[in-house]
Write a structure and sequence with these properties.
Number of strands: 9
Mean pLDDT: 79
Order of helices and strands: HHHEEHHEEHEHEHEHHHHEE
CATH architecture: 3-Layer(aba) Sandwich
Shape: globular
CATH class: Alpha Beta
Number of domains: 1
CATH superfamily: LigB-like
Number of helices: 12
Radius of gyration: 19 Å
Structural class: alpha/beta
Amino acid sequence: MGALVPLVLACARTHDGAMNESKSSVGARRFLAAAGNPGRTSTYSRRAVVGGLATVATAVLAAHASGGETARLSPPGAVDPKANGRKTGMTAGRLPVIFLPHGGGPWPFVDIGMPKPEFDSLAGYLKGIAARLPQAPKALLVISAHWEEAVPTVQTGANPPLLFDYYGFPPASYELTWPAPGDPKLAARVRELLAAANIPSAEDASRGFDHGTFVPLKLAWPDANIPTVQLSLKKGLNAGEHLALGRALAPLRDEGVLIVGSGMSFHNMRAFQFRGGGAAGDVGADFDRWLHETAPLPAAERNARLAIWAEAPGARYAHPREEHLLPLMVIAGAAGDDRGSAPFAGTVLGARVSAFHFG
C-alpha cells in the first residue's frame, strides 16, 4: 500500500505545496501514513481504495478551508396541504430525477474539519430531499461518481454492505451504518430496460454501497428503509452514452423508482480554497452559471449542450476529469421533457456547487 502515497500526493496537491502544522495538517499526515499501512481497511479491495482516493484527498485537505458564502435554498414549490407536505404539480405517479452533490468522505457524520457554514447548508438540502417529492419512492436507483465499469453494471445483492472507499479518516468513519436493502427485481428491470435500448450491461452481486451513495442518502433517508440499487458509470465517460443511458431508464420514473445521480457539479481539487483566500463562490462560477442556464432549457437543446459540455466556459477547470459530472448526464437523459431547476446553489470550499432536479 506504500505505493499509493505518490498517488495521494498527486491527487491532493495544495496551492503552494506546503502544510501548516494545524489540526488539518495532522489529519493530512495521518492520511498519508495510513496509505502505507492498510490497517482497518485491509478487508477492502485495493481497487476500492484507489477508486476513492481523489475524493478522500479533497475531504482530508478540506480542513484548510475557511468559511464561505452559505448556500441558497430555493423554495421547494407549491405545497398542497392534502399532499402531506409534498410538492405538487408533477404528472400523477411520476417521480422527478435528481442530481445531488455528495461532498467528500464521511463529512456529515465525522468531524474531518469541513467548514461548518458551507456544509451545514449542504446537509440541510440533503435532509430535505424527501419532502420535495410528490410521493414516497418505492425504490432508489443511484448512479454514483465512484463506480466505473466497462459496461453499465448493476448491483444485484439483496443486502449490500457499505463500501468504505475512503482512507485514513478517524475510526468512526468505518463504523457508519446504512442498512438499506437491495432490490434484485429492480436490478433485473434495469438490465431489461438497457437491453431494450441495445445497451450492453452486467451485474455485480457483491458490490456494496460506496460513499457517493450511503453518505448523502444516510442524510436523506436515515431510516434506510427504501430498497436501493446502484448502477455504474461506463468507462470512457462519454457524455452522449450517459444521456442515452438515462433515456433508457426513464420508464422507472412511472414505476415508483427515484433515479438519483450522485456527484459534484464542480470537482477540481487543486482549485478548492483549502486555505481560504479569494471571494467565496468565485471558483467555478462560469461553469456553474452555464449549468444553471442549461438545466431549464427544452430537452433537445439542454441535452445537445450537455453532450458537448467540455466546450462550456470553465468546463475543464471545473472538471479536469468528468466522473463527478457524468451522473448529471444520466439524470438529464432520464428527465425527458421535464425542465430542470436548482434547489441548492451554494459553495463548497469556496467553489460554486449546485444540485439539479427535473420534474
